[in-house]
């Protein structure tokens, strides 16, 4: 861990690993038919591996935000990946929005691609 008390994925390998793994796992769970069980399991593993408070705080915050975003997706039965990414954005899950949009962006063209690129 770096000497800072802030969660800094740009300069801290453990923070980057935590952020990336959580985001990747969330994106796999976005469809309304899936639950956040895999995210909860990963979060437990990550807290055991990285018990420092700065990491645990980040993980708890993400779990809270993920649950809120997932509730919005489930309630609205939102299955379109782009619309799901907008929900993530609304919940200030910007890196997760990036993770959700990147595969769509690679396949997109024109204005849609530019919009996704701006969000990413």
Total helical segments:
6
Mean pLDDT rating: 92
Give the termini distance in whole angstroms: 27 Å
Main sheet: strands, sense, barrel: none
Global outline = globular
Structural class: mainly alpha
Which segments are poorly predicted (pLDDT under 50) over 5 or more consecutive residues? none
Radius of gyration: 15 Å
> What is the strand tally?
0
Please state roughly what percent of the residues sit in beta strands, choosing from under 5%, 5-15%, 15-25%, 25-35%, 35-45% or over 45%.
under 5%
Q: What is the percent of helical residues?
A: over 70%
Order of helices and strands: HHHHHH
Quaternary structure state of the chains depicted: single chain
What's the layout of helices and strands?
Blueprint: H1 13-28, H2 37-49, H3 53-76, H4 81-90, H5 94-107, H6 110-119
Helix pairs in contact: 1-2, 1-3, 1-5, 2-3, 3-4, 4-5, 5-6
Structural notes for this entry:
The chain is mainly alpha-helical. The chain is built from 6 helices and no strands. The mean pLDDT is 92. 72% of the residues lie in helices and 0% in strands.
List keywords for this structure.
120 residues; mainly alpha; 72% helix; 0% strand
Summed up, what is this model?
The chain has helices at 13-28, 37-49, 53-76, 81-90, 94-107, 110-119. It is an all-alpha fold and 120 residues long. The chain is globular and about 45 Å long.
């Amino acid at each position: 861990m770096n000497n800072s008390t802030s969660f800094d994925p740009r300069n801290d390998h453990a923070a980057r690993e935590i952020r990336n793994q959580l985001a990747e796992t969330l994106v796999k769970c976005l469809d309304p038919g899936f639950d956040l069980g895999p995210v909860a399991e990963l979060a437990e593993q990550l807290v055991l591996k990285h018990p420092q408070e700065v990491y645990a705080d980040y993980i708890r915050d993400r779990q809270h935000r993920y649950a809120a975003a997932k509730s919005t997706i489930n309630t609205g039965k939102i299955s379109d990946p782009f619309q799901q990414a907008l929900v993530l954005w609304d919940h200030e899950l910007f890196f997760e929005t990036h993770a959700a949009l990147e595969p769509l962006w690679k396949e997109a063209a024109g204005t849609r691609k530019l919009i996704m690129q701006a969000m990413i």
